[in-house]
């Protein structure tokens, strides 16, 4: 579908498709999602099939407002505080699920991941369908998340009929996932745009962060949300430390990606994620840059890690999972 104009003539056919159990790729403020009716097991199965995603890896359910959350999950009192601070927005909460949520969505767990997204198109669709929408990132399992409609079309265009183009995603990195199934012991499972520190301040409780598993053991593979190797381009990705240059003799076939525009360029095939090294801009451009470089015939991509603060923690988390030698 072409980029949207200000009219909403696209909406009825998208609503109809979702109500009929079809899948639709939709923009969110984080990344594009592959959405379908979360209450329909056949539709949910299609999401897994189209992505090539193992059924042990549960999905995030997107809803329009707090009343919808209450229909799907048990709502602890502190959730209202979290919602007031961070919803609509890039925070996913793991909550104790209610019966109505199909086991396929949650991979048989007794918890469900829920998010109230902010993107106006996603919100319009949620409101008009009045359905909870299961939506993982709209990429083949393990590959880079899409931050533009063209990424979705290139990766899944032959499998997904409806791709709604909302332009580039504002944030460009997936939501923070907070395990809130025990509200006294909140744990960030996936760092994201909203840091553990900010969440902790909002609810006045310490918030831990789950560490990356040390090795790619079968145990780690089975733990939902903790799959170690993820978000990878096909071209091997190597990382070099923040504020340094990679040690490469000849980079004719190697792309080198810095945080910010380098002052002197003694390497060829040099790219940068932000003019000034701004972390939000780096997050916004990261996946798009990797998608574009992956289409070229580089033998390897060398990319600079970022400073480990704010959204930089989430960026480094994705890079660690994506790196070739992890
Ligand atoms: O920003 C986002 O979160 C995007 C947009 C589309 O909303 N979605 C997204 O979904 O990144 P996905 O499926 O690519 O990642 C969801 C993660 C998976 O790692 C999954 O294992 C974890 O959420 N997850 C889902 N339900 C869970 C649960 N009940 N317990 C633990 N982890 C869960
Ligand atoms: Mg994903």
How would you describe this structure to a colleague?
- The protein is an alpha/beta fold and 326 residues long.
- It is built from eleven helices and 14 strands.
- The chain has helices at residues 11-19, 41-51, 66-72, 79-86, 103-106, 120-129, 149-156, 196-203, 218-222, 279-295, 311-322, and strands at 24-26, 33-37, 60-62, 91-96, 111-115, 133-134, 162-163, 176-179, 187-190, 208-209, 237-240, 254-260, 270-274, 300-304.
- The strands form two sheets. A ten-stranded mixed β-sheet has the order 7-1-2-6-3-5-4-8-9-10, with helices on both faces. It has a four-stranded parallel β-sheet with strand order 11-14-12-13.
- β8 (176-179) and β9 form a beta hairpin.
- The two termini are 37 Å apart.
- The chain binds threonylcarbamoyladenylate (TXA) and magnesium ion (MG).
- Threonylcarbamoyladenylate (TXA) binds at residues 28, 30-31, 33, 57-60, 90, 92, 94, 106, 109, 111-113, 115, 135-137, 174-175, 177, 189, 224-225.
């Amino acid at each position: 579908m072409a980029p949207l104009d200000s009219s909403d003539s696209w909406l009825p056919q998208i609503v109809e498709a979702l109500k009929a159990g079809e899948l639709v790729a939709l923009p969110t403020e984080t990344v594009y999602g592959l959405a379908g009716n979360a209450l329909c097991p056949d539709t949910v199965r299609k999401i897994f099939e189209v992505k090539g995603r193992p059924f042990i890896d549960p999905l995030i359910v997107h809803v329009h407002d707090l009343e919808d959350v209450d229909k799907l999950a048990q709502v602890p009192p502190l959730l209202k505080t979290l919602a007031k601070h961070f919803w609509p927005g890039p925070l996913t909460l793991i909550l104790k699920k209610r019966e109505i949520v199909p086991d396929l969505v949650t991979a048989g767990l007794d918890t469900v991941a829920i998010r109230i997204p902010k993107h106006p198109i996603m919100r319009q669709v949620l409101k008009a369908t009045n359905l909870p929408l299961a939506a993982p990132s709209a990429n083949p399992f393990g590959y880079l998340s899409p931050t533009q409609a063209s990424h979705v079309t290139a990766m899944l265009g032959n499998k997904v009929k409806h791709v709604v183009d909302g332009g580039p995603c504002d944030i460009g990195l997936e939501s923070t996932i907070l395990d809130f199934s025990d509200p006294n012991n909140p744990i960030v499972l996936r760092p994201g745009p909203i840091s553990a520190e900010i969440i902790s301040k909002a609810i006045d409780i310490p918030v831990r962060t789950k560490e990356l598993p040390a090795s790619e053991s079968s145990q780690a593979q089975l733990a939902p949300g903790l799959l170690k190797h993820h978000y990878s381009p096909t071209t091997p990705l190597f990382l070099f430390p923040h504020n340094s240059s990679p040690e490469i003799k000849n980079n004719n076939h190697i792309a080198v990606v810095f945080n910010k525009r380098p002052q002197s360029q003694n390497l060829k095939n040099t790219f940068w994620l932000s003019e000034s090294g701004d972390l939000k801009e780096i997050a916004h451009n990261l996946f798009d840059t990797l998608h574009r470089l992956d289409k070229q015939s580089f033998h390897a991509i060398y990319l600079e890690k970022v400073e480990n603060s704010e959204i930089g923690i989430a960026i480094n988390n994705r890079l660690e999972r994506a790196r070739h030698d992890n």
